[in-house]
Design goal:
Shape: globular
CATH superfamily: Hotdog Thioesterase
Number of helices: 5
Mean pLDDT: 89
Structural class: alpha+beta
CATH topology: Thiol Ester Dehydrase, Chain A
Strand content: 25-35%
Helix content: 10-25%
Distance between the termini: 67 Å
């Protein structure tokens, strides 16, 4: 008779810092200033980046580098990093590459995202790195491409995106800022 393996139970506690009043102060910053603030820690990362462990490592006009540790918590039944998690990392990096190259009165929204998965990404892949760069920025649209490598430098995925470049919307105060002012 074969032995049955009973999986271990794991517990995850998700914790993040509210962007709060800092979010409103970022409205007048250029994308590049915002990204460099994330690198220095002067600006609080969005909750999704905090939970996934996404970090901005480098930011220059039109190019960014992001990293993310591969955690067991984000793997599927095959032990592979879920495609949606990797796509979130790629979407973030591509959008920020475009954001780093547009004027301060503009913002971006993803129009489309294409990801080609080339190699399985597992927890053993370690820290994955995305290098993203702008391909083209027009009056209303930006295009960017990226490569994702694992800790051994092996190419795992490539991505491309187009983003709508639009005027920044007026910033509404965050719920935390509204509650604090009462």
């Amino acid at each position: 008779m074969s032995e049955v393996h009973v999986p271990s139970t794991h517990t995850a506690t998700l914790e993040w810092r509210d962007q709060g009043p800092l979010f409103a102060t970022q409205a007048d910053a250029t994308g590049l200033t915002y990204l460099r603030g994330l690198i220095s820690g002067d600006i609080v990362a969005p909750p999704v980046a905090q939970v996934l462990g996404i970090a901005v490592v480098k930011a220059d006009p039109g190019t960014v580098q992001f990293t993310m540790p591969v955690k067991n918590f984000f793997t599927n039944h095959l032990g592979l990093l879920a495609g949606g998690i990797l796509s979130t990392l790629i979407d973030s990096a591509l959008g920020c590459a475009i954001l780093s190259a547009i004027p301060e009165d503009k913002d971006i929204v993803t129009l489309d995202l294409n990801v080609d998965f080339l190699r399985p990404v597992r927890e053993a892949s370690g820290l994955i790195t995305v290098d993203a760069e702008v391909v083209h920025i027009g009056r209303n649209r930006g295009l960017a491409s990226c490569q994702v490598v694992d800790s051994e430098g092996r190419l795992c995925a490539v991505g491309k995106s187009s983003c709508l470049v639009r005027s920044k919307a007026p910033t509404a105060p965050s719920p935390a800022a509204t509650a604090a002012s009462r």
